[in-house]
Amino acid sequence: MRVPLIFLFFLFCLQSVFAQKEDKAAIFSNDKGAIKGYDPMSYFTAGKAQNGLDSITYRWKDAVWHFSSVENQKLCAQTPEKYAPQYGGYCACGWAQGYAVKIEPEAWAIVAGKLYLNYDRSVQRKWEKKQTMYIQKADENWSKKKH
Predict the structure, then answer these.
(1) Are 119 and 91 spatial neighbours (Cβ–Cβ below 8 Å)?
(2) Which residues contact 59 (CB under 8 A, 6 or more apart)?
(3) For the purposes of burial, counting CB atoms within 10 Å of the CB of 116, is it exposed (0-12), middle (13-18) or buried (19 or more)?
(4) Which of these ranges, 4-8, 22-26, 117-121, 143-147, has the smallest mean pLDDT?
(5) Are residues 48 and 90 in the same domain?
(6) What crossing angle do the helices spanning 121-129 and 131-144 adopt, rounded to 10°?
(7) Pairing relation of β-strands 104-111 and 114-118?
(8) Which structural domain range is residue 146 located in?
(9) Residue 5, H or E segment
(10) Cα–Cα 20 to 30 A to 128, which of 15, 38, 85, 94?
(11) d(CA 76, CA 79)
(12) Same-domain check for residues 33 and 66
């Protein structure tokens, strides 16, 4: 009778490990905040990645978003889903393959009014070559995710 109990305990532990691996935060964030502390509006307003300030923030979807100006913070707070990066700020190429992968804020693109971030610039160059295909596949994978 001991073997089945140990086996059941092992299965329970194994299930917990897999559940934790799949349970990523809805928004990619680190100790600096969402998008590693970069201002999501700067991609749209300045056409480049800019660091946000610790003194100008907005909390949305359990993440702290930083901004380079009060104007950017106010505009984003009105419709955050319009300016937030796709796939919760995780790598767009990674989501095309079904994985939630970290990003580098400097590897970005705006396509059809939406912000996409990638793991790094080399992955971004790969992503840009088949951008439409990657976006379509990532959209499919993202829609299957519970968020």
Answers:
(1) yes
(2) 65
(3) buried
(4) 4-8
(5) no
(6) 100
(7) antiparallel
(8) 85-147
(9) helix 2-22
(10) 38
(11) 6
(12) yes
Neighbours of 36 (CB within 10 A): 21
- Average pLDDT of the chain? 87
Q: Which two tokens stand for residue 29?
A: 């964030």
Are 101 and 69 in a shared domain? no
Tell me: do 133 and 90 sit in the same domain.
Answer: yes
Q: List, for residues 55-106, the tens digit of each pLDDT value.
A: 999 999 999 999 999 999 999 999 999 999 999 999 999 999 999 999 999 9
Neighbouring CB atoms inside 10 A of 101's CB total 18
Residues composing the chain: 147
Comparing CA positions, the residue from 129, 126, 128 lying closest to residue 109 is 128
Is the pLDDT at 5 greater than 50? The verdict is no
- For the chain, the distance separating the N- and C-terminal CA atoms, rounded to the nearest angstrom, is 41
